[in-house]
Amino acid sequence: MPEVRIDTGLYFLAEHSARGALVHGGVGNVDIERILVEDGWQPVAFGDQENFSGVAKIRRTIRMLRTLASLPRGATLLLQWPVYAGQSRMLLRGLRRFRTDVRIICFLTDINGLKDADPALLERELAVFRGLTHFVAHNDTMRDWLLEKLPAARVATIDFFDFLAPWNAGERVPAPELCFAGNLEKSPFIARLGSLAGLRFHLYGAPAVFIPTAPNCSYHGSFPPAVLPARVAGAYGLIWDGTEISKHGGALGTYARWISPHKMSLYILAGMPVVCHSGSAAARLAEKYGIGFGVDSLFELEARIAALPPEEYASMRDRMAALAPGIAAGDRLRAALRELSGA
Questions:
Q1: For residues 292 and 141, is the Cβ–Cβ distance under 8 A?
Q2: Which architecture does CATH list for 177-328?
Q3: Is the peptide bond before 82 cis (omega within 30 degrees of 0)?
Q4: Mean pLDDT of 274-281
Q5: Domains 10-163+329-342 and 177-328 share a fold
Q6: Are residues 193 and 174 in contact, defined by beta-carbon separation less than 8 angstroms?
């Protein structure tokens, strides 16, 4: 007997799960869609994701127009920004112009104008945001930035991205060993980690030209996200960007001022107190929740780790253990949506 779907009036623009190997975004975007489906939100997709022929484009446009006309009055549609697909952007424009009865929630998973340090792109993004009213932002810093631009916006925050994987804190002891997991190709600073001979680094991610061969660095390869919390080695989780180990540099280093990195959630699930740049939003979260600390330079790390009392390290892990179940279950997004439901 076919499943009977009850129309909850809750929809989301599905751009990530259907693609499998993602063109844009990553596991965090897919997890967001998984949480929404679990909670009864219905996906809006136009099919033919990998078909770029003219006929397929026409089919997608027809489906988009049908969606624009058929969404129930008073429905809620959640989208993850940035929106890349052409028909998805057309739907957003159509909703803003013709269907003002539909409430749009914009989850700011990334802001590319800030990420790429591109003022013209940022202004184009802000032009879209000005037509919206409800947002989910990473943290208080991103919320405050958005409210400076859009004072009337309703903004909820998550602080940490949900990470739908079994949490496994393991048995860890304070030691000068750090894990760095993520997009190694976008992390050129790792080539310089050999200069920090008093520290040991465990690297996880797809192969990259920057992977060091220094004796204090071990490359462990790439693993499915669901198994990472139980696989990663080290005592601390490193969050760093740019080309330098003496400072946070480049556009991504600047972008770190506003974002909650997805790898922070991985480290929480793995019970690894986080180390990050002192000027980053991650450092403010680490201080707020008591789960790590910030430094201005990685050259400070060896002394900071040596000076950290074992009981404080254990307390950080205890506080992570309190956060981990909710992150692993999708509760960060759910709490933000509950906050916006009354706005």
A1: no
A2: 3-Layer(aba) Sandwich (3.40)
A3: yes
A4: 97
A5: yes
A6: no
Rounded CA-CA distance 136/340 in Å is 8
pTM above 0.90, yes or no: yes
Residue 53's pLDDT is what?
60
Q: Which residues, other chains included, contact 249 with Cβ-Cβ below 8 Å and sequence gap of 6+?
A: 241, 242, 243
Copy the structure tokens of residue 80. 């993850």
Residues of the chain with pLDDT > 70: what percent?
A: 92
Residue owning tokens 């990334």: 110
Characterize 173-211 residue by residue with b for buried, 16 or more Cβ atoms within 10 angstroms of its Cβ, and e for exposed. Answer: ebebbbbbbbebeebbbbbbbeebeebbbbbbbeebebb
- C-alpha dist (Å) from residue 148 to 106, 238, 337: 17, 31, 22
Exposed (0-12), middle (13-18) or buried (19+): which is 334, by Cβ within 10 Å? middle
Measured CA distances, 298 to 8, 62, 233, 239 (Å): 50, 53, 19, 11
DSSP letters, 73-136, are: TT-EEEEEESP-SHHHHHHHHHHHHH-TTSEEEEEES--HHHHTT-HHHHHHHHHHHTT--EEE
Instruction: Quote the pLDDT of residue 24.
Output: 36
Closest CA to 253 of 220, 283, 217: 283
Distance of alpha carbon 104 from alpha carbon 134, whole angstroms = 7
Select from 235, 232, 293, 240 the least CA-distant residue to 266. Answer: 232
CB 78: neighbour CB atoms within 10 A? Answer: 23
The CB density around residue 336, as the number of other CB atoms within 10 Å, is 20
Question: What are the boundaries of each domain within the chain?
Answer: 10-163+329-342, 177-328
Which tens digits make up the pLDDT trace of 27-43? Answer: 899 999 999 999 999 99
Superfamily of domain 10-163+329-342: Glycogen Phosphorylase B; (3.40.50.2000)
Q: Phi and psi at residue 203, in whole multiples of 5°?
A: -110, 135
- By C-alpha distance, which of 78, 26, 35, 30 is closest to 330? 35
